[in-house]
Input
Amino acid sequence: MKTLGLQFPVQTLDGQILLPSGTLLDADAIGGLMEQSRSENWPRLPVLEYSTIRKDILYFFTHPPYEIIFSGEKRVNDVLGLMQEVSLPLPLLEILERFREADFYTYRHMLLVFALSALLAREMVEDPEERRHSLRASPTHDVGKIGVPLEVLRKPTTLTPSDRQILRHHVISGFVLAGYYLQDFTLLPVCVARDHHERRDGSGYPLGEAIDDLFLEMVIVADIYDALLSPRPYRPNAYEKRSALEVLTTMAEKGKVRWDVVETLIILNRRRKHPPDGERRVSRERRGAEPAGNSYSLPSRDEERH
Ligand SMILES: [Fe+2]
Ligand SMILES: [Fe+2]
Output
C-alpha cells in the first residue's frame, strides 16, 4: 500500500495540531500518535445517548425522504437496537455536535449513513457479532470534515480544484482523528474514515486502489445514497429515491460499488413488499432521471461532495 501524506495539518476541536502538513503517514508518525493518545482516557458514551442524537434520528426516520425505508415498528426498533450498541469516545461525539451547530447537513448525513448502514447490516450480515462489528464502521466516516472550512463545505457553486483538494483531504484527517481518539489505527471505523471514497474498480481516492470489503461497501453505498437524497447548497433539488437508486445501479453496473448492497437498498425501499430471501429480484431497467434544473448535479460532482 502507498504511504499517504498530509497536505494540510490535522487539528483537534480545541485547535491542538496532531500532525503538521507535510507529514508522511508512515509507521513512525502513526506510532507517535498512538503513544500520545495512550496517555488520554476519554470517556465513551453510546452514540444514541449523546445530546439530541436519538431525538434527531427519530425525526429523520419519520420525515421524507426516509419515512418509507425506516417504517415498520420491528424494522425501526431493530435498527435503533443495533445503533444503540455503538459507543464513541467523547471528543468524536463533540465533533458530531459541532457539525450540528455549524453544518447541519453534515451532522444529519453522518447520522443517516450510520442508520442506513445499520439497516443494510441487519439484512446482509447474519452473524450477530459480525453485525455489531460492522456497525462501528459508519458513524465517524466523515469526521475529517471538521478540518474543511465551512465556506467549502457549504459552497453553493462548483468547487475549484483547490476546494476539491481541501475537501478530499477529509479522508486523511478522518483517518488521523478517528485513529487517535479510538487509540488504534487498525480498527474498522478508522480504515472506513480513510477508504469510504475508494471504489471497487480503483477509481476512488485517496489511494485509488480497488476495494472488496462488505462492511466498508455498505457504508459507501449508504454514503452515496444519502448524499443524493439530501438537499445540497449547490443544486436546487435533491434526487428522487428512484433516481438516486438509478445512479447507484449504474455505478454497480460499472463495477464501482457492490451490486448486492445496491440490490438490498432497492428492496428495502419497497413499502410493504419484502419477499423472502432467495426470491429477491431487481429489475435493472432505468428507474428515474436526475432532478430538473440541477446545473451542478451530475453524479460525478455529487460523488465528490459526501
Ligand atoms: Fe459522507
Ligand atoms: Fe466522505
